[in-house]
Amino acid sequence: MMSTSFTILIAELIVIWLIFQTLIKLFNTVFSYSVTILVIIIILMFFGFLPQDFIQKIMLLFLAC
User: Which of 15, 34, 45, 58 is the most buried (most CB within 10 A)?
Assistant: First the structure.
């Protein structure tokens, strides 16, 4: 028969593993969106837009809400 402390240890390890997987997925999502935004900004700079123009348009969008 398994002891209670061993059962709790297994449950804790499962919870830690689930949290770790969630954090990895979150990191991957944030990283992919950051790379996408960086590529968009580089393309816009190629066509003559400055990062300040991009930030100004975003600020106007948020202020309009």
Answer: 45
pTM for the whole thing?
0.61
Total domain count, the chain: 1
DSSP string, 21-49: HHHHHHHHHHHHHHHHHHHHHHHHHHTT-
CA distance 1 to 38: 56
Query: Does 28 or 57 have the greater pLDDT score?
Result: 28
Residues 6+ apart with CB under 8 A from 36: none
Find, among 10, 17, 15, the residue nearest to 2 by Cα. 10
| Element holding 65 (H helix, E strand) | none
